[in-house]
Design brief:
By secondary structure, the protein is mostly beta strands. Helix content is 0%, strand content 38%. The chain has no helices and 12 strands. The strands form 3 sheets. It has a 5-stranded antiparallel beta sheet with strand order 9-4-3-2-12, with no helix packed on it. Strands 5-6-7-8 form a 4-stranded antiparallel beta sheet, with no helix packed on it. It has a 3-stranded antiparallel beta sheet with strand order 1-11-10, with no helix packed on it. The radius of gyration is 14 Å and the shape is globular. The structure holds FE2/S2 (inorganic) cluster (FES).
């Protein structure tokens, strides 16, 4: 596996929380979150709420995960962990974008062709506080 794509040790990913990471590809930078499903597998979604895309789900110390759902702290939208689908809240029906990740040698790797590298933590480049808001 390409070490540039290594995010974290797999054992750090739990079912009751998320771990945020930053992905880079070309001139693009974005953030994702990792969480563990009940079957033990690990999934990755975008870290941005589809309701207001400048709102992070995980601000650096885990998103709120409750009853198998990721909760947006802004207006309380809930997203099913196993599908990323919003089943309650202002963006009901929206689906979180996914990243392809692979577990190998005890670590989680970003194996999504759209991105070249990944590292744990929030992006220092993405200051969302002054960004324009896309609302619906
Ligand atoms: S910003 Fe997430 S529910 Fe409104």
């Amino acid at each position: 596996m390409d070490e540039e794509r290594r995010i974290v040790a797999a054992e750090e990913i739990t079912a009751d929380g998320t771990v945020v990471f930053t992905a880079k590809g070309g001139f693009e930078t974005t953030e994702g979150i990792l969480t563990r499903l009940d079957d033990g597998s690990i999934v990755a979604y975008t870290n941005y709420c589809p309701h207001w895309r400048d709102v992070r789900l995980d601000k650096g110390s885990s998103a709120l995960v409750r009853n198998g759902e990721i909760v947006c702290g802004k207006h309380g939208a809930t997203f099913a962990k196993n599908s990323g689908t919003c089943d309650f809240g202002p963006c009901e029906g929206a689906v979180l974008d996914t990243f392809e990740v692979t577990v190998a040698d005890g670590a989680v790797y970003l194996t999504d062709d759209e991105w070249d590298s990944a590292e744990p933590g929030l992006s220092e480049e993405l200051d969302l506080s002054s960004g324009s808001r896309i609302d619906f």
